[in-house]
Amino acid sequence: MANIFERNRAELEDLCKRRFFFRQGSEIYGGVSGFYTYGPPGCALKTNIINLWRRHFIIEERLMEIEDTNIMPHPVLKASGHVDRFSDFLVRDVSDDKKFYRADKLLEDVMEDKLKEKGLAAEKVKEYTLVRNQADAYSQEEISEIFRKYDIRAPESGNKLTEPEPFNLMFPTPIGPSGLIPGYLRPETAQGIFLNYKFCLEQNQNRLPFGVAQVGKSFRNEIAPRQGLTRQREFTQAEIEWFVKPTAKQLKKFEAVSSEQMMLFSSDLQLAGKSAETITIGEAVKSGMVNNETLGYFMARTGLFLTSIGVKPEHLRFRQHLPTEMAHYACDCWDAEIETCYGWLECVGIADRSCFDLNAHAKAAKVDLAFREKLDQPIEMEVLRLKKDAGVAMMKAFKKSGRVVKEWVEKLPQEELKALIDEATKDGKAVRTVEVADDQTEECTFLPEHLVCETKKEKQSTVQFTPGVVEPSFGIDRILFSVLEHSFYVRPKDESDEEKQQKNVLRFSPNIAPYKMTILPQDQRVQRTDKYAELMQLMQSGAALCGHTCTVDDSSATLGKRYARNDEVGIPFACTVDFTSLEDSTVTLRERDSTEQIRLPAAEVAALLDQLCLRRTTWKDAQARYPARSAGYP
Ligand SMILES: Nc1ncnc2c1ncn2[C@@H]1O[C@H](COP(=O)(O)OP(=O)(O)OP(=O)(O)O)[C@@H](O)[C@H]1O
């Protein structure tokens, strides 16, 4: 059965286009899939969501915000793994090679359809759910096998499909007039944060933990952009990297959120074919379902942010990645999924990525990104040190490069040295690439006799480690789309109303509404007066001073029609200037959802609007403070 969002989809799509929330990019030229332009209300809505995100995370969590470049040189994205691994599998219709499908999404759709079949046995439900949930985690061989098993075909033509082939999602862009410097449009904003971790750490007086955020565009050459704003080729991300000591992921402020109830869909529940459960984040961390307090804290804060901007809590869940879905280096990952007309949609990914990214960039850029923690008391530690004979054996074995290779081994961090020794002992040799001169590397084969070490006790006043990272990654456009869906409803016909029509309403909370108030003259006779101009100016400039945008609707349509038009773009308050206003400078203020009205002096409107938008007062309180609009008023 279609969910409520699916049933409203056509109406909402029409509204968004007609009122220019967004339209296809370059539409007058026919447009290209995957690119969208936000029109005035959509752009204002997006700006308000981003501003609230900044307040909720950057200000309240005291993060540092940076702005890195959209174009990044090849070595950065090579080191991050995007050049080699940022691919999706694509399949083509055998009879029409211009018809592409993204293999994992097609597989998800097929499983989704199967799950809708009537009278399915529990085993089948479990099987299809599992395949759907791990669709994007299959290897090329696995997905090919699965396509064969379920005989998946091109949805439109029913034709067979080609074998899945990897397709890199990055947009290459040669840099400079020679075009010889290879680069890419960034596929995520996160990499810019890792590149600048070292400089941000300095700004934080070399202390951990701390967080860095970035809001900006990301670019992915999606194989099959579809489903409007939710899968674009250019979209906005807001990402946080929270750098933390890997052994200290407990967080004092976790206590403040530990009793937050959250709908959690753990990997165990998914694998057992069960539904999500609602528990507190405190319980989830305590039981080990969520790996650590830092991760749990950001999950709870994400939930609070999403509901504060209008996502309905009963349509929000956190789904844990299945073990097969998770990157090998990650400790734990949860997606905040919001139910929309397209089903449960991943809108935020929250991952504990351990030290992978910093290690990768440290190695590739040959920059030391290790954190050195000063100890209060020096400690005596057992360390491995190369024996003299082993050093001599190494110098002999690596001839010209012997000294450099020996120094390289001596400088290795203890864990890496231990790993090297273990490998050489187990396999009889271990191969490593060593930089022996500027821009010159050598493949060195280490034998066990090159690596004989003794254990020494040494006093240490610092410990060294690469910080781990917890990464909440928000897709702003998907969030905006979900908020649109969760805010939309159709107001039933009101028989007393002169138009007797159903009316679309966007029930945006005032904090994100594109415009906060609309000012309406009762009719053109009022509009033509100097007093109207004076009152309108007073309220508009007062609201502007508080940072709130107002619109003016002085068309000749009836007041009822104008209210409906403004409800449709989600303006929470409408202020009407009528004949009485011309005499006593009072106006009526109408609240969109209840359609109730109060009467107050025009000079007090801006201050009340500000309090309502900042949630310092409620409409109920405003009604208690000011009289209801008396009969006879419009
Ligand atoms: N093509 C896109 N269009 C709009 N938003 C996107 C797109 N790809 C990713 N996002 C958003 O960015 C967030 C973080 O990106 P991430 O790399 O984790 O996504 P992803 O797992 O690759 O998404 P998907 O599996 O849906 O392609 C996502 O949760 C999503 O909200």
Protein architecture, described:
Among the domains are: about 80 residues, Herpes Virus-1, CATH 3.30.40.230; about 90 residues, no CATH class; about 120 residues, Anticodon-binding domain (Rossmann fold). With about 625 residues, the protein is α+β, with helices and mostly antiparallel strands. Helix 6 runs antiparallel to helix 7, helix 16 packs across helix 17 and helix 21 packs parallel to helix 24. It has a nine-stranded mixed beta sheet with strand order 3-9-10-20-15-14-13-11-12, with helices on both faces. The chain has a five-stranded mixed beta sheet with strand order 24-23-25-26-27, with helices on both faces. The chain is globular and about 100 Å long. The protein has 25 helices and 27 strands. Adenosine-5'-triphosphate binds next to strand 10, strand 15, strand 20 and helix 19. The site of adenosine-5'-triphosphate (ATP) has 17 residues, from strand 10, strand 15, strand 20 and helix 19. Belongs to the class-II aminoacyl-tRNA synthetase family.
